[in-house]
Write a structure and sequence with these properties.
Strand content: under 5%
Strand order of the largest sheet: 1-2
Largest sheet: 2 strands, parallel
Number of strands: 2
Radius of gyration: 15 Å
Shape: globular
Structural class: mainly alpha
Order of helices and strands: HEHEHHH
Distance between the termini: 20 Å
């Protein structure tokens, strides 16, 4: 993180957490050959790093409105369970835009 902050000195640096995904609790995800931590662990790490470096965070994991484990939500916003469709990206653009405007 220090390198990033030095490289972009004077520019705003923000942290965005990942979106929920349909199999986020699976220790192998989609294609991994070994067990890894669940997505929520990576989110927690990002939140701690942001706090440590006093960086603003948009916790998309908590506020994106995209939850692929809900069939209706997945159909409407992220049909493959991972990647948002146009409606999902429009929702994200709105949330990210409001976040950036608030800085």
């Amino acid at each position: 993180m220090n390198g990033l902050l030095e490289m972009y000195a004077g520019k705003p640096v923000v942290i965005l957490t990942p979106l929920h995904r349909w199999n986020e609790g699976c220790p192998r995800g989609d294609v991994k050959t070994e067990d890894v931590a669940p997505l929520s662990t990576y989110r927690t790490i990002l939140l701690r790093v942001a706090e440590s470096y006093a960086l603003p965070v948009l916790d998309l994991y908590a506020v994106s409105g995209i939850q692929p484990t809900n069939a209706r939500n997945r159909e409407r916003l992220a049909p493959d369970g991972v990647h948002p469709n146009d409606a999902g990206y429009a929702l994200l653009a709105h949330r990210i835009g409001k976040f950036l405007e608030s800085l």
